[in-house]
Amino acid sequence: MPAVKGVLPVFQFDNSYARLPDRFFASVYPEPVEGPKLLKFNAELAEELGVEADFSDPARLAAFLAGNVVPPGAMPIAMAYAGHQFGNFVPQLGDGRAILLGEVVDRNGKRRDIQLKGAGPTPYSRRGDGRAALGPVLREYIVSEAMNALGVPATRALAAVATGEQVYRETVEQGAVFVRVAASHVRIGTFQFFAARGDNDGIKLLADYVIERHYPELKTTDNPYLALLQGVAGRQADLIARWMGIGFIHGVMNTDNMTISGETIDFGPCAFLDEYDPMKVFSSIDQGGRYAYRNQPGIGQWNIARLAECLLPLLDEDEEKAVEAANAVLKAFGERFQKEWIGVFRAKIGLATEADGDGDLIQALLAAMHEGQADFTLAFRRLCGAAAGTEGDELFLSSFSHPAKAREWLELWGTRLDAEPQSPTERAKTMRSVNPAVIPRNHKVQEALSAANYGDFSFFERLLEALEKPFEERPEFSGYMQPPKPEEQVKQTFCGT
Ligand code: AMP
Ligand code: MG
């Protein structure tokens, strides 16, 4: 479509999902909001998407991004999906407060969804108002961008817009729209939607669609549907290993919050570990600790099993063979995760080679961190200094309330490092490229959200800046590298839906 002059921003839409059969979605227009006001626009991402936007007219930009004006070429839809929420199957969920405007092919040739989250009610809203509150919108903005800067696949933030309207949650809050960019919004729950209806044609159409979009290299394999299941399992195993490496707790790993593309999505009540505790849970709604830090790989595998169930009719005509093939994928998920996890943590402790016993060495450090209540991010960052020999071991050990075990561990580590080819300087440099100095610490996110609720966006802006280069220790951002003081510690997070 040619660029339309004077109507900005211009997205070069090329919608494919909206061309699938009607039962895949509901066509629905965003509900205009009273007073759209641009809070944040990601110009760099807009550039990558090939969006032409006129920043000199933020009011016009805000009207588009809040959904008040639907840009030419958009085919707004709410996607249908189902899902297991905390283990319970809900046959119909769907985008209840998100509207997919359309897709663009970015400057790298990658197809990306542009979605407005909080853009008004849809046929899938159930009892919800279709809106989003300011706090959760800014939280998603911060964490999306942080994850990407940390090198962990996640959806992106294009903009946050205030609606000028109130939303009613536990208290009255300011409304906002989040403009989300994703490789796609197809979830495990999308497959479950068709499986729950016995709609095998729907499952096949969807599988063909996602193979074309996310796994085109699998088209020519002997069994593309089995290869798809293996592909999703592999990407999710890798993704969760990456989460574990940065102390990320998604918080709500329902099957409708797990993508087929392998991007992190819908991390409403997410949080990052402060002190290392494998059973840590932050989400107020996760009473049983189902989605605790340590449970994430197991839940990932459980979710893949739900996807496998949907795909069974496509895997093999012989049901027994289909089940056998699916079980092999689940087993492979566990092995792949384990391999990736060891890879992630080997790099974190500066090992360039593999040796038997590395897994035990890593576990011993984690056990010492647990016992010594060491801050996960800071302890690993300080270990880089210990590797270089410059800061010595003492700074690292000062992260532990009881350093005895950590001190013993340094001995074991030192012996293991004798077998390594890298020089201490090289090792420290590599370690600093995988152990972040800055993460979106819960108390800093909280601080930014609280100030924004009072109209002060300076903390939000500054936090985003700090998170742009997470592997650098920039003195002006040293406050973002410190663990919370006891009174600053965030104990619980909320979905904010
Ligand atoms: P989430 O917990 O954000 O992954 O959402 C779970 C389901 O609830 C999805 O189907 C959402 O679209 C829906 N939902 C969440 N919040 C709202 C809301 N305020 N209005 C309508 N639907 C919602
Ligand atoms: Mg969701």
TrEMBL record:
A UniProt-annotated Pfam family: SelO
Keywords: ATP-binding, Magnesium, Manganese, Metal-binding, Nucleotide-binding, Nucleotidyltransferase, Transferase
Cofactor: Mg(2+); Mn(2+)
Chain positions recorded as Mg(2+) binding sites: 257, 266
Domain of life: Bacteria
Annotated positions binding ATP: 94, 96-97, 117, 129-130, 180, 187, 266
GO molecular function: AMPylase activity; ATP binding; magnesium ion binding; manganese ion binding
Residue ranges that the Swiss-Prot or TrEMBL entry lists as coiled coil: none
Catalysed reactions listed for this entry: L-seryl-[protein] + ATP = 3-O-(5'-adenylyl)-L-seryl-[protein] + diphosphate; L-tyrosyl-[protein] + UTP = O-(5'-uridylyl)-L-tyrosyl-[protein] + diphosphate; L-threonyl-[protein] + ATP = 3-O-(5'-adenylyl)-L-threonyl-[protein] + diphosphate; L-seryl-[protein] + UTP = O-(5'-uridylyl)-L-seryl-[protein] + diphosphate
E.C. code: 2.7.7.-, 2.7.7.108
Active-site residue list: 256
Chain intervals for the UniProt region annotation (Disordered): 475-497
Function recorded in the entry: Nucleotidyltransferase involved in the post-translational modification of proteins. It can catalyze the addition of adenosine monophosphate (AMP) or uridine monophosphate (UMP) to a protein, resulting in modifications known as AMPylation and UMPylation.
UniProt xrefs under NCBIfam families: PRK00029.1
Family to which this protein belongs: Belongs to the SELO family.
Protein name: Protein nucleotidyltransferase YdiU
Lineage of the organism: Bacteria, Pseudomonadati, Pseudomonadota, Alphaproteobacteria, Hyphomicrobiales
